[in-house]
Design goal:
heterodimer, A: 4-stranded antiparallel sheet, B: mainly beta, 5-stranded antiparallel sheet
Amino acid sequence: EPEVTQTPSHQVTQMGQEVILRCVPISNHLYFYWYRQILGQKVEFLVSFYNNEISEKSEIFDDQFSVERPDGSNFTLKIRSTKLEDSAMYFCASKGTVTYEQYFGPGTRLTVT
Amino acid sequence: RKEVEQDPGPFNVPEGATVAFNCTYSNSASQSFFWYRQDCRKEPKLLMSVYSSGNEDGRFTAQLNRASQYISLLIRDSKLSDSATYLCVVTRGGNTPLVFGKGTRLSVIA
């Protein structure tokens, strides 16, 4: 069964450093999303991406964040200058064209120290 | 008011019990509704979509009441493996983002 994959599974970084989180969506999906979940809190939407551009973003997705689809398979989330409060699980999700369901990758645990 | 509200639980039930979870949503423009399950420190996994007519998948039954903006999930004959957090999720439809509730924790005890 096709699945979304994410790397790395865990990233530790120092405050102020840049991080890039990587995702490989399901191959025939066209809609891509990033969500995050701070420990003990709900899953929150960050950004959606379609046809090589951002289609929607939340208030959380400020100028420190960017997304890119550098090739036909990868979808990345970059945080330019990490803050302590960026520590969270970051989930990538993808969606096909036929149904409304989104499928999630296993997540990257980001720890900012 | 929170967009999606759920009783956080925990619900502690014996194996074989029937348990029901409720959820309310505030955005009347919501068009699509789902239940996801999340195991500890894992990704949300789609359990089932929720349709206006109600739908069943094995031991799981989901109901939607658009007028009351209320969604429910019923689990019959609980198994130990059903222990997880159940997330109520809504969207405005199409390709719009998922809006999650905080989840209801279920522990099924032997």
